[in-house]
Inverse folding.
């Protein structure tokens, strides 16, 4: 885990976590070290964070932890980086589409297919935006469990920022972020010969470290330096961190986690329900 060092927020500020209308300066145990770190960082923020209950806050903390774990496990796996023409997946679980995306094979459980990306990682090749969505799905799965995941996340399509409507990706302006958040580094003068390096989607791990599929675990400066190596000749503009932060709708997913899963997994032919959200110049914010 990478969460030991604070990120420079001001110390000594009033608590800005609000639970059921009351300002709090601590959360009841037990919390993991990463969860404690996230709470401490939120308490240093000038922005208020409001929750209906402590359990709702703890759900967000658990899922942020699962996103970080999914990123670290992907980094340690044997998945490969490649653009859409080079994409590959396990045909037992996914159908490769003409655009290079992956469609869940009929009759396959979503939970099994998502976990297979890590279990049989050597069979997979994909680019960084698709990797982000994979890690989000993995975190939801490990937070709410397979029965609920299979109920709500059916007919999955893994293709850039195409997502099931129940993931509810939200992008907001700003630089303040926490472990589990998604950030985007843009390379405005990318070399046309390497368009896959026009930017890098990364997961914040904490301690000023980020994971980007195709780059690995790096500091922001290292991400920028690597992107700058793929600029066109005589380029003068540096890659930079965009002024936006992306995360799933934790409060909605918390409510979803309280529902009762379907007793049987039969509705596998329902039409695909999805939204497209994108980090970069074109962003659609789910509501």
């Amino acid at each position: 885990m990478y969460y030991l060092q604070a990120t420079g927020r001001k110390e000594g500020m009033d608590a800005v976590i609000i639970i059921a209308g009351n300002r709090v300066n601590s959360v009841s145990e037990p919390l993991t070290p990463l969860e404690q770190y996230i709470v401490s960082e939120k308490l240093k923020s000038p922005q208020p964070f409001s929750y209906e209950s402590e359990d709702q806050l703890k759900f967000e903390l658990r899922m942020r932890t699962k996103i970080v774990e999914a990123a670290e496990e992907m980094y340690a796996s044997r998945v490969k980086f490649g653009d859409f023409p080079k994409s590959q997946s396990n045909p037992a679980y996914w159908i490769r589409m003409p655009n290079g995306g992956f469609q869940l094979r009929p009759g396959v459980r979503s939970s099994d297919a998502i976990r297979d990306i890590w279990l049989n990682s050597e069979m997979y090749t994909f680019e960084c935006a698709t990797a982000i969505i994979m890690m989000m799905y993995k975190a939801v799965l490990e937070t709410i469990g397979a029965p609920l995941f299979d109920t709500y996340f059916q007919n999955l399509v893994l293709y850039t920022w195409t997502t099931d409507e129940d993931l509810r990706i939200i992008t907001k302006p700003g630089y303040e972020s926490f472990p589990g958040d998604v950030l985007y580094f843009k390379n405005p003068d990318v070399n046309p010969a390497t368009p896959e390096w026009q930017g890098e989607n990364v997961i914040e791990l904490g301690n000023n470290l980020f994971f980007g599929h195709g780059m690995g675990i790096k500091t922001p400066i290292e991400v920028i330096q690597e992107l700058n190596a793929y600029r066109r000749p005589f380029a003068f503009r540096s890659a930079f961190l965009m002024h936006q932060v992306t995360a799933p709708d934790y409060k909605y997913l918390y409510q979803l986690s309280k529902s009762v899963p379907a007793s049987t997994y039969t509705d596998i032919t329902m039409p695909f329900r999805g939204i497209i959200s994108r980090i970069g110049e074109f962003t659609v914010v789910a509501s």
About this structure: The longest helix spans residues 54-76. The chain has seven helices and 17 strands. The first strand starts at residue 17 and ends at 19.
